Amino acid sequence: MVANLKPRIGAVILAAGTSARMGEAKQLLRLGEATVLNQVVNNVCGSSVDEIVIVLGHQAETIKQSIATESLKVVVNESYRQGMGTSLRAGLSALPSEVDAALIVLADQPFVRSATFDQIIDHYQQSNAQIVIPVYKGFRGNPVLLDRSVFPEVMALTGDIGCRAIFGNHPEGIAKVPVEDIGILLDLDSKDDVARLQDFRNGTTVDGSALEAADLEGREIAGEGQPYQGPELTIVGRDSVAIALAKIGKLLRFVVTVVDPFLKSSDLPDADRFLNSLDFSKLPASSARFVVVASRGQFDEEAVEQALHANSAYIALVANKKRAQEIRRSLELKGAPPEKLAKVHAPAGLSIGAETPEEIALSIMAEIVSEIRSSGGSKSAASS
Fold first, then answer.
1. Are 348 and 377 in contact (CB under 8 A)?
2. Is residue 202 part of a domain?
3. Domain range for residue 336?
4. What SS3 class is residue 364?
5. What is the count of structural domains for the chain?
6. For tag attachment on the chain, is the N or C end more exposed, with fewer CB atoms within 10 Å?
7. Residue 211 lies in a domain
8. 365-383, pLDDT tens digit by residue?
9. DSSP H helices in 19-83
10. Do 230 and 189 have their domain in common?
11. Is 207 inside any structural domain?
């Protein structure tokens, strides 16, 4: 970056995917008066970004005809079927050499506000960060901003992995910027997502469901006012493993809390509480809190860090060994004591050859019961 000069910022919009879960090109789906992709392009164009590159692949010609290309450069990634890594390489390679940093924008996130892009850029300009990540109520989202110094690492990625794969190499170079924009967490992976968010405008939906969930601020919306007793099972995430964990935890008479930005009581009736901000200080004090992080990589590090600060009796991370090592390394560099990190079980659960979400959940709960027994918890929830 040249001293005393405002850095030039680029944006790479990744729009090459096959939309396999959607069943049709989600880039072309209508969202109000515009397509999903055009809405993304409009939002980026409304920011202070200097250069825009859009990476196409699947149905490239059809999609190209649907967007106005005057203010952006279109690159076709012929290797798009090999994964996101190839699109990152194509997009970053197409940026002019004078660009100092780039926002990596996902084509299925049409609700990120232009002002949010600018907030991320402003934070980069005021810091020495190599990577800037937006955070909404403690939950990490997209887009991320990359300094040119990390471009070579990202361009060397292969397969269907994104720039998150390099985060573990730069724990001291990452800056997280809080934003008041739920759009950084909203993506369109399925037709249900599109239907639910079809009329999402300026932070609201037709039924208010997105903001209703996000604004709960940790209130107990199921069983409010009940005197809870027994050990606490706190689950971060809403995937199939999390759902199975809630069911088994309830059966074993744990007090079950699910932490996720969008969940409501109707989504997971087996839970006692729902926390829609990643802030464990909002949870009631407990001498026996067992935390399972099953966020599919979205909020792993932040959730484990919260669990450590809460002095949890047990922490399990549903992740592979490589991801677990990256998180441990990052937390070590932040000063997490070794004796606390030793409480993090990753991969999570006892080794029983578990494959299905239900089996994985069972292995984790078995490990928790083992922890309770080894600590002498004869009157625990699992003793009945």
1. no
2. no
3. 216-383
4. helix
5. 2
6. C
7. no
8. 999 999 898 877 544 454 4
9. 36-45, 60-65
10. no
11. no
